[in-house]
Design a protein that fits this description.
3 helices; single chain; 0% strand
């Protein structure tokens, strides 16, 4: 089996992201933006509820529920961080991927 021809053929492939390459790309981009907005709203609601649970439980001496509220607060903050940083994370790995030779 001759793999050298396959390697040469693979090195001549060049693909770059094209936002107007397929029909409906603008609608899909709008849909993803809406999903990101909903994700941030969910993270905000989780943060408010968890922080309130943490505060009330800690004040009343219920340390198990305070730990649940603390964990929910951290998870909600982390979710907001990931949703907000998602475009930069994707762009970073796309740039790393284009530099692989």
């Amino acid at each position: 089996m001759n793999l050298s021809g396959l390697v040469v053929a693979a090195t001549s492939i060049n693909a770059t992201p094209n936002p107007s390459g397929l029909p409906g790309s603008a609608a899909l981009e709008g849909l993803i933006g809406g999903l990101a907005f909903w994700g941030l709203l969910a993270a905000l609601a989780g943060l408010i509820i968890s922080a309130g649970l943490w505060a009330l439980s800690a004040q009343s001496g219920n340390y198990q529920h305070a730990a649940v509220g603390r964990r929910g607060t951290l998870v909600s903050a982390g979710a907001a961080l990931i949703v907000g940083a998602a475009p930069a994370i994707i762009a970073f790995f796309q740039n790393v991927g284009t530099s692989v030779k």
